[in-house]
Amino acid sequence: MSAPAARTERPAAESGSRRLILDMAARLLRSGGYHQTTLREIAEAVGIRKASLYHHFASKEEIVEAVVGDGVRFVHDAVAAALTGAGQAGPRRRLEAAIAAHLCALHGHGDYTSAAIKVFTFGSGPTPESVRLARRLYEDVWRRLIAELQEAQEVAPGCSAEALRLFLLGAMNGSIDWYRPERFDLGALAREFAALVAPGRPSD
Amino acid sequence: MSAPAARTERPAAESGSRRLILDMAARLLRSGGYHQTTLREIAEAVGIRKASLYHHFASKEEIVEAVVGDGVRFVHDAVAAALTGAGQAGPRRRLEAAIAAHLCALHGHGDYTSAAIKVFTFGSGPTPESVRLARRLYEDVWRRLIAELQEAQEVAPGCSAEALRLFLLGAMNGSIDWYRPERFDLGALAREFAALVAPGRPSD
DNA sequence: TTCGCCCTACCGTCCGGCAGGTAGGCACTG
DNA sequence: CAGTGCCTACCTGCCGGACGGTAGGGCGAA
């Protein structure tokens, strides 16, 4: 239930309570968004009083920033690992693996990534630099993958790399509005998606 | 500025103030979502006191319901008109026209449609039946169009009709997060998306 | 006179955040 | 060993303000 979701980039330097707070915040942010999620709800889910949250975080925005940052890093790591695992397979296979990893991060484990998609922008001020950086680094993964596909001429012509990337990420992230585990299979969905973007021989 | 955006389906039976309230509510909902948008903001934008809103609507949810319903009907009408205009052109051309109409409704005119996408679900209770019906009717337009494309074998194989529809609508609606009029051209974007979904000869 | 439209003033509730206090543990010192 | 001081972690209680919503009155037009 409260398994350490984003263990990848965390050197176990968490105080325990802090991670638990983020777990609960991620769950609430995923289902309710920024304004609907209150500190009282988070504190109640953790089992402490609201004021105690301020021993771990300076503000609500700091909690949300941590959740969103972890969410983006989590999906980034998952996709990067999938691409490494796909190794020198054909670009089409690598695309399929990346799509599956992104969808799995969104729906398979944890609430961090879907919370990161849902709140996208939050708080009063501009998006914190840490989050913007994490987001940019993740976008670059897809930019490189799409360039790879275009170089291998695996992708439908007549669509620019940037439009393709935005289409792809928009369609995948939109799945948080309609995906239900009992109605869809993530692997099949990834295959269908890859077939759409990179038509032709799947055994490449 | 305050041009009647959703004139299409409204037989001018509006009280004037009511339409103005909805215009302002749509603008605020578009940029801030449901919980961020307050009745005080709406009233101030209209130029009246907050309590006066209750002479036209019974609650905040009723205002939002009207905006979202109009937004869905507006994009529905726009896409249906585009398809009628495309007449007996090839399915690929009809798809392009529909995508262009949807994107134009989102970004070209009025705030109703983008507000409808942004708030998707709102309020405490379930989505009102009127909104769910309007949404379902609009979805059917795309279901029919995609069936048309599949029948003509214009669409990439290996992707089911339902997945294709969800991907396409998700990608288009996701554009509210990244579309900037000075960086993209709606017509070009529509062509690129259509090329992605229905690859091959564009002159069909 | 009636009615549509808008007003001022107020309600109870919940928000994020802050001040200040307390219980227990750990380390150091005489 | 006792005593002291500091630390983390949490608590109670409150603040100013914003929220959606309500009550009741004014006022011009028909």
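The first helix of chain B runs from residue 17 to 36.
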